[in-house]
Amino acid sequence: MLEDCLQLAIRSKDLTEEVYVRCIEHYITMGNLERAIKILDSLSPPLVKKCCLRIIRMTEALFQDDFLGDICRNFKEISDLIFTRLTRASTLLGEDTMVDIIDFKNISMIFKEFVKKMTPYEFGCMETRWRIVKECIRDSVLTLPMESDEQLHIVYGKVSRLAALFKLCPEEVVIELVQQALDLNNFQVAVGVLGALILLFGGSEPIIIIG
User: Fold this and answer.
1) pTM, 2 dp
2) Burial of 66 (0-12, 13-18, 19+ CB in 10 A)
3) CA 26 centroid distance within chain
4) Contact 194, 178 (CB under 8 A)
5) Nearest residue to 40 via CA among 68, 72, 78
6) What is the C-alpha to C-alpha distance for residues 1 and 195, in angstroms, rounded to an integer?
7) Are 46 and 94 in contact (CB under 8 A)?
8) HSE-up of 115 (CA within 13 Å, CB side)?
9) Cα(68)–Cα(32) distance, rounded to whole angstroms?
10) Are 137 and 155 in contact (CB under 8 A)?
11) Which residues contact 157 (CB under 8 A, 6 or more apart)?
12) How many other C-beta atoms are found inside a 10 Å radius of the C-beta of residue 65?
């Protein structure tokens, strides 16, 4: 049935956003992400942008729900591909990608990389963003091995990624990491990370790693 509707839309001059959105939504729901993207890639830039915005709004609605079933995961899994195509279509049309859509991409990546779920409303609250960053540091960063300079570099990269996704100052996020390490009496991590930060910004103070 959906294939027939799609073929009808392709042959008609009066293409409607609704037909394509419903088809794409159906394939995402069924887990056929490849088919959904194939349909999207067949459309003109104006229609691509309209469909992407509709799919993004649907996905945002799922972020408001506590139920993380297969359908929700499918929409989140495809969100990067949708955002890429939205950006490309906007560029071809000489238009900007809306700021709240960029926030949506960050929310999606936070869920994928740090398994932390946020609603757009929560992302707009600085206090909430900081609370979740602190959770990410505790759950995803301080659990990483940090016995060598190379591992400390990986940790700093993780912290920088957190800062970028949450739109926070990287140095402030590093300081939060150091503070949490101190609270746990993990002086090796605290001094090591702080030393890496000082060297990164051209500091000359000697750093002694406490074993």
Assistant:
1) 0.61
2) exposed
3) 23
4) yes
5) 78
6) 63
7) no
8) 4
9) 18
10) no
11) none
12) 11
* Domains of the chain, residue spans: 2-115, 126-200
Angle of CA points 77, 83, 86, to nearest 5°: 145
- Find out whether 52 and 45 touch, Cβ atoms under 8 Å: no
Q: What is the 3-state secondary structure (H, E, C) of 141-192?
A: HCCCCCCCHHHHHHHHHHHHHHHHHHCCCHHHHHHHHHHHHHHCCCHHHHHH
| Structure letter (DSSP) for residue 66 | S
Residue length of the chain: 211
C-alpha R_g of the chain: 22
pLDDT tens track, the chain, 211 positions: 556 655 655 555 455 677 888 888 888 888 888 898 998 898 888 888 888 888 887 777 776 665 556 666 677 777 778 888 888 888 888 776 665 676 777 887 888 888 887 877 788 889 999 999 999 988 877 777 666 667 777 777 888 889 999 999 888 888 888 888 888 887 777 777 776 666 655 544 443 333 4
The SS3 assignment for 68 reads coil
Residue tagged 């920088």 (tokens) = 160
